[in-house]
């Protein structure tokens, strides 16, 4: 079994910052990419940021320059530092991992989501 557990969401004022964390645990052999998605009410889930096993990063245009993704491979943990937050960043943020299990199966795994609300 594989689990992804997010933390760090909450309510923040416009212009503020939050740091999300996602820890993967269980029968993990290796993790390829780790990603953050978000889904706002009435909208489709969208990819926010991704980081490869080698540390290469990609960002949605809407968050470039404001969000930073990083990972600690020794802890199977990915982070999302979010600065200069805007009301339109309000969404449920989901962690996603593309990984290989100890049973040699590769798949996509998801966390339960954490709410981020940007409001004054």
Show the helix and strand layout:
Layout: E1 2-7, E2 10-12, E3 18-26, E4 28-39, E5 46-51, E6 57-59, E7 67-72, E8 77-82, E9 91-101, E10 106-110, E11 114-118
Parallel strand pairs: 2-11
Antiparallel strand pairs: 1-3, 3-8, 4-5, 4-9, 5-6, 7-8, 9-10, 9-11
In total, the number of strands is 11
- Beta-strand proportion: over 45%
Q: List SSEs in N-to-C order.
A: EEEEEEEEEEE
Q: Could you give the distance between the termini?
A: 40 Å
The number of distinct helices, counting runs of at least 4 residues, comes to: 0
Shape annotation: elongated
How much helicity do the residues have? under 10%
User: Averaged pLDDT, please?
Assistant: 97
Helix/strand structural class: mainly beta
Spans of at least 5 consecutive residues whose pLDDT stays below 50 are none
Structure, described:
The protein is mostly beta strands. Helices cover 0% and strands 60% of the residues. The chain is built from no helices and 11 strands. The chain has strands at 2-7, 10-12, 18-26, 28-39, 46-51, 57-59, 67-72, 77-82, 91-101, 106-110, 114-118. The strands form 2 sheets. Strands 2, 4, 5, 6, 9, 10 and 11 form a 7-stranded mixed β-sheet that branches. Strands 1-3-8-7 form a 4-stranded antiparallel β-sheet, with no helix packed on it. The N and C termini lie far apart (40 Å).
Quickly list its features:
4-stranded antiparallel beta sheet, mainly beta, elongated, 7-stranded mixed beta sheet, 120 residues
Short description:
This protein has 120 residues and is mostly beta strands.
